[in-house]
Amino acid sequence: MSEPIVWLTIFVLSVFVGIDVIAKVSSTLQTPLMSGANAIHGIILLGAVIVTGTTDNDVALVVGLVAIVLAAINMVGGFVVTDRMLQMFVRKKKPAPAPTSDGGAA
Amino acid sequence: MTPIWVQLTYLACAVCFILALKGLSGPKTARIGNLIGAAAAVVAVAVPFFYLDLDHLALILVAIAIGTAGGVFGAQRVQMTQMPQMVALFNGVGGGAAALVALLELHELIPLTEIDGAVNWFTLAATAFTILVGSISFAGSVVTFAKLQELMTSRPVVFPGLPILFGASGIAAVVLGVVTVTGPAVWVGVVLALVGLLIGLLLVLPVGGADVPIVISLLNAFTGLTVAAGGYVLDNVVLLVAGTLVGASGTFLTMLMAKAMGRSVANILFGALKGGSTLGSGEASDRPVKSAGPEDVAILLGYADRVIVVPGYGLAVAQAQHTLRELVEVLIARGTKVDYAIHPVAGRMPGHMNVLLAEAQVPYEQLVEMDEINGEFKHTDVVLVVGANDVVNPAAKTTPGAPIYGMPILNADEAQQVVFMKRSMRPGFAGIENELLFDPRTTLLFGDAKDSLGKLLNAVKAL
C-alpha cells in the first residue's frame, strides 16, 4: 500500500493539476481563491481526528484535541469566509432590489 | 487495510477539491466551487467515524464543535477590510494543527522503529518536514496577522544578527531533521517545532507591509505542502492530494502576485536583509502642496467629462465606499463618464478592492482593471484618488532603488488634473514619498475620507 513510488506519482501529478486548474485566474479572484485554498488545507482536521481517536496516551490526547480545534477553525472558518466574499460578487450580477419577475432590463 | 468504500470516498473528495479550485478561479463558478470544496471536506472528515473504532469520541466531537464555532464566529464577524489578516490567521492555525498531528504521529512511530523495516526513513523524513514547515507557517502567519492588524509596525524589522541567526536556525532545522530520521525521539520533534517557530518569525519580520499579502500566500502554500506530507505519514490519500493541490496552486498564485508587483518572491523575502532602500520616511514632507476645500473639488468633478476614481485601502478603512458610490452615481447622472480603476494589488491583496467595492454594491461593470484603463488616463479630466498612494506613485517608473520600483502603476500622472483625498501627508503603505502629490496639476483634499466624500457629495449635488 504505502509504496513510496505510488505516493510520489500521486504527488507529482497533483502538482501539475494544482497549477493547471488555477492558471487562468483573474486578479479579481485571487483573494477568494487564496482563501478557498486555505480552507481546503483545513482537511488536516481529518488527520487530527484519526490520530486523536487512536491514541491511548493522555498528553497525546490533549495535544490531539488542540490540533482538532485549530484544524476545525481553519477548515470551517476558511470556507465560511470565502463564501462571504463570493456572495458579494454574485449579488451584483443581478440588480438586488428587483421586484419579482417582470422581464425588465437584461 | 482500508475498506474499499473508504478509498473510493476519498478519491471522490480529492476530485471535488480539484473541481473546487477550478471553480474558484472563474467568476461565475467561484461560489459553487467553494461549496463543493466545503462539502468534500465535511464528507472526508466524517469518513473515519464510520470505519475506524475511534476512542475519545465525545471529546473529539466537542473539540470539533469548539473549532467550528470559533471559525464561524471569526468568519462572520471579520470586517472585509481585515480579510487578509483573517486568512493569515486561519492559515496559521492550520499549519499549527498539521505540526501537532505530525508530533503525535512521531510519538506513535517511535515504538515501531524498533521493528526492522516497519517504518521507512522516508516516513520519518516526511514527519520531520511536517513538524518543521507547519511550525514555520504558524509563527509566520501570526507575525503577518500582527503586522496587518497593526499590533506591531508594518515596516520591515531587521536587526544586525538576523541573517546569522536565520542561517543558524536553518542549519539547526536540517540537523534536527536528520536526527529525526536516524534516531527519532519525541523531544527531537519538539525542538524541531520550536526551531520552526523561530524560523517563521525571522522569515516574516523583515518583510515590509505592502509585501505581507504575498507572504500570506506563500505560507498558505507551505501549509498545503505540510498537509500533503502529513497525508503520506498517515497513509491518507485525500490529505496528500488536497495538500499538494493547495501547495502547488498556492506557490503559483504567490508568483502571480509577486509579478503583479513587479518583484520576485526572493526579493520580497530577503530584500530588506540586504540593507535595501527604505527611501523617503523623513524626506520633505513639508514641501508645498496645493490643497483645496470640498466645494472647489466639487466644481472640478462636476464639470468634468471623464473622471476616473482610484480607490485604495484608506477608502475602506474609513468605511467610505458607500459614500463614494453615491458620489459616482450623482456624477454619472450629471452626464460624466466615471469608472473605477482597480490596481491588481489595490487594497491589501490582489482582488481585495473588488471585494470591498462589491460589498458597497458598486456595479461590476464600473470596475476596470489596470491594463484596460491605463491608456485612458491621457484623455481624463480628473483622477480622484481616494485613500490610495503607492499604486499611483510615479517612483515605481522613475526611481530605481525605490522599494516599489518596477511595480506597474496606474498612470494617474497622465491626467489633466489629479485630486488626492488624504488624511495627512503620511507616506503610503510602502513608506515612500509620492512625487505626484507635489505636481502642479495635483490638488489635495485633506480630511477623513468618509467625511470629505460626504461634503463633496453635498457640494456636487448643490451645483
Layout: helices, strands, pairs:
The complex is a heterodimer of chains A (106) and B (463).
Chain A: H1 4-22, H2 30-40, H3 44-53, H4 58-91
Chain B: H1 4-24, H2 30-51, H3 57-77, H4 83-113, H5 121-148, H6 162-182, H7 186-204, H8 212-233, H9 237-260, H10 265-270, H11 294-302, E1 306-311, H12 313-317, H13 321-333, E2 337-342, H14 352-359, E3 367-369, H15 370-373, E4 382-386, H16 395-398, E5 417-422, E6 442-446, H17 449-461
Parallel strand pairs in B: 1-2, 1-4, 2-3, 4-5, 5-6
Summarize the structure.
The complex is a heterodimer of chains A (106) and B (463). With 106 residues, chain A is an all-alpha fold. Chain A has helices at residues 4-22, 30-40, 44-53, 58-91.
Plain-language structure description:
The complex is a heterodimer of chains A (106) and B (463). Chain A has 106 residues and is mostly helical. Chain A has a domain at 29-91. In chain A, 70% of the residues lie in helices and 0% in strands. The radius of gyration of chain A is 21 Å and the shape is flat. The relative contact order of chain A is 0.10. Chain B has 463 residues and is α/β, with parallel strands linked by helices. Chain B folds into two domains: 78-274, no CATH class; 294-461, TPP-binding domain (Rossmann fold, 3-Layer(aba) Sandwich). Chain B has helices at residues 4-24, 30-51, 57-77, 83-113, 121-148, 162-182, 186-204, 212-233, 237-260, 265-270, 294-302, 313-317, 321-333, 352-359, 370-373, 395-398, 449-461; strands at 306-311, 337-342, 367-369, 382-386, 417-422, 442-446. In chain B, helix 1 (4-24) packs parallel to helix 9 and helix 4 runs antiparallel to helix 7 (186-204). Chains A and B meet through helix 1, helix 2, helix 3 and helix 4 of A and helix 1, helix 2, helix 3, helix 4 and helix 8 of B.
Question: What descriptive keywords fit this protein?
Answer:
heterodimer, A: mainly alpha, 4 helices, B: alpha/beta, Rossmann fold, 2 domains, 6 strands
